[in-house]
Structure formats: C-alpha cells, structure tokens
Amino acid sequence: MDDSNPWQVRDRFLEMHSRWMTLIGEDLQDQQGEILEYWRIEKADSVIVLPIQNDQFLLPLPSYRPGVGQVILDFPGGRVPETQTPEQAAIAILKRELGIEATSVTQLLPLNKEGWAVNSSFSNQSLYGFVAHLNNVENIKQYSEQGFITYPVTPLGVQDLLQRFTCLQCRAVLLEWWLTCR
Fold first, then answer.
1. 83 burial class (0-12, 13-18, 19+ CB within 10 angstroms)?
2. Is residue 3 part of a domain?
3. Are 68 and 152 contained in the same domain?
4. Is a pLDDT exceeding 60 seen at residue 145?
C-alpha cells in the first residue's frame, strides 16, 4: 500500500455538529480512483485512569451507560476538553468520579504518550491511559459515602476486573498497565 498517496475528499455532503460530536459524510476517492461514500465521527479524546492506593484499584460505583443500556463497572474516565491536556483531564476525572483532590495524587504516569486510535475507520478519537498513585488514606476514605469499589492489585484482582469489564477501553488500559508497568 502506498501511504504517500492518501485518499482525497471529493465532496463533504454533510457536517452536523453537537456538543458531543460532529457527524461527517464525505465522498472519498481511493488510490484506484474509485469514489466511496464514507461516514465518520469526530469526538474529543478520552482518558481512563487507574487509581491505585495501598495495592488496591479504586473504581467508581457501577453506573448506567446509555450506549449499551446497562449499568456497568468502569475505571474513572471521560473526555479531554479542548482547554485541557490529557494529564489535566485525568486529574479532573479523579475529582469528579471519586472525589480525589490533586493533592492526593503522588504520581500520575502516562501509559501512552500518543493517544491510541479508538476506532480509526470511523472516528478521530484517541484514548490516553494513566496510572494515578494515591496517598492520604483518610482523605480518600471520607469519599466512601460518594462510593467507590476496590480490587486488589494482584493477578487475581486483574483477572476479576477483566471478567467484569464490558468496556474495551478499560480492558485495554488495564492490560497495557499489566503488561508494561507492574
């Protein structure tokens, strides 16, 4: 395949914006000259954080996800606003989902410097993974009323989480950490 000859946009026949995404319909010409109708979505990048304290993963309580119509377990995660870096978004996500202040994060380690493509044929969205090592046990315990779940940072704990997660992004970040950082 010749990467120096990318497909050419011949016509953008739809561009629909919402605060969550932009839907784009285009006619693209491939390297053989064939015109193809193609649809894609542009979205803000995502961050997933693995919070670890005292050899335990901290996860928010399971929540309802409209995309799958179920209550599921996820690591803390969310979108990266245009005004933030992935690192800043990771800190904001910990505050929003677990009530963890930035001062409780002793180390925030990126799992990937360049975002991973979430679905490269349909979307421009990238995923960034982080590991947040936490301190100040008492400060975090006060948020147990807000709710969080712990899993041990052990082979059995990781295996249990992999069986419980339906979110492929959470699974990918956990596996990347398991294979490269533990």
1. exposed
2. no
3. yes
4. no
- Residue with token string 């992999």: 162
Taking each helix axis as running N to C, give the angle between helix 155-164 and helix 168-180, from 0 to 180 degrees, rounded to the nearest 10.
Answer: 160
Report the mean per-residue pLDDT for the chain.
90
Examine the domain organization and report whether 71 and 151 are in the same domain.
Answer: yes
Is the pLDDT assigned to residue 24 strictly greater than 70? yes
CB 43 within 8 A of CB 125: yes
What sign for the dihedral angle of Cα 144, 145, 148, 151?
positive
pLDDT for the residue 12: 96
Which among 46, 77, 75 is positioned nearest to 149, based on CA atoms?
75
Judged against a pLDDT cut of 90, whether residue 131 lies above it is answered with yes
> Quick check: is 67 in a domain?
yes
Total of domains in the chain: 2
Q: Report if residue 156 sits inside a domain.
A: yes
Write out the residue range of the structural domain in which residue 93 sits: 46-180
Q: Does 82 share its domain with 58? A: yes
Residue-wise pLDDT tens digits, 70-117:
999 999 999 999 999 999 999 999 999 998 889 999 999 999 999 999
